Amino acid sequence: MKKDATIILIFSLVAYTLIVVLVHYTQSYVIFQSRGASNAPPKHLDIDEAVLTTPDGERLYAWWLQTDNAEKTILYFQES
Fold first, then answer.
1. Are 61 and 51 in contact (CB under 8 A)?
2. Do the Cβ atoms of 61 and 41 come closer than 8 Å?
3. Which residue, 28, 53, 62, 76, is most buried by CB atoms nearer than 10 A?
């Protein structure tokens, strides 16, 4: 019985370690994947589009949706 518990514990630790290592090395492929050029914003919303140029010359494509009673702001942008 004790031997079975030890084997299960060792297997669990090895499996957990492998999963953590796999997630660590594959996270850049899963998170923040560029899908190329962005789609235009929905027409039924009053969204302003802008291209912002950073000091180092990068261009950022941004949407701005103004609301009257907003408590927070979300800035969505994508490198263009």
1. yes
2. no
3. 62
Structure letter (DSSP) for residue 64: E
**Per-domain residue ranges of the chain:** 1-33, 36-80
The amino acid at 48: D
Q: What is the pLDDT of residue 56?
A: 94
Beta strand spans in 1-80 (E): 47-53, 59-65, 76-79
Q: What is the pLDDT of residues 28-57, one digit of tens each?
A: 777 766 666 667 778 888 888 888 899 999
Whether 53 and 59 have beta carbons less than 8 Å apart is answered as yes
Q: What is the spatial distance between Cα 64 and Cα 76, in angstroms, rounded to a whole number?
A: 8
Residue 53 to residue 24: CA distance in whole angstroms: 32
